[in-house]
């Protein structure tokens, strides 16, 4: 997506990925010969780059930090650095840890249990001194994506430098994006129980099919005829049946749903006297209709249950019993004392909770 040089010590590259883009910041910190002011100036510029990075991006900060993070920092900086690093931490190492902690970054190549030669990243010209001063950091949000056991230095790679190549294996397990397919239309097939609806449906579909028969089958492409046939059925079903209305209760009828729509419109006029009275009447009518519809539905279910039991249709009978008896159990979200006051503090719950439970069990 772009590469942006910040200075002679900082450069960023942004890679397009899905569903998160990847931002890599490469840094080269001043050596120990530079002053503390110059070090702070470098980290200030680095922090500005991090702050301008989109928060949803997978952020990787890597480079030569000229800082030593040691085993002694593992305890105080738990989760930021591991114990597979240098022996001791120097002053620049603590500055790097402060930066990593502030930005929720993890020094990945300090966690791998590798031998020393695969942890060292820099070698002195005489080949005697070896240190780990190059680090790869990643946001802790994506730390599980970094393969720690395969993140190490490669001393055998010939790159013509006193630094070794450091490699981190990253395997992202991201949420799968569901493809938006065409919306499936569900028609209200219950209307087909009405003979008048069936008659209207047949009359309209016959008229559309009559127009379809006028097409010359030899000159018209079969795909065009198929599309015309499907369109005739879909248009007829949409005009006559309409879309199926989603209901959570099986006994709710279209009449009750229409009353609910009317009540929703009257809710806007509740501030007026006439509107408030109409809203109240419609609300009462809905409650009466719901009660009667539920009673009728239960009676019908019981009749169907008796018929299935008498005909030894145990599978359908079991399903009917399950529909009649299954209820959602409420879940207790708070604990109350004997006076009914909610207990929110942990000490109060531990103190008064057991006595409240005992009183409830003895009551029942």
TrEMBL record:
Extent of the signal sequence: none
Pfam families: Exo_endo_phos_2
Xref: InterPro entries: Endo/exonu/phosph_ase_sf, Endo/exonuclease/phosphatase, Swc5/CFDP1/2
Family annotation (SUPFAM superfamilies): DNase I-like
UniProt-listed CDD domains: L1-EN
Chain ranges of the Endonuclease/exonuclease/phosphatase domain: 22-166
Listed name of the protein: Endonuclease/exonuclease/phosphatase domain-containing protein
GO MF annotations in UniProt: catalytic activity
Domain of life: Eukaryota
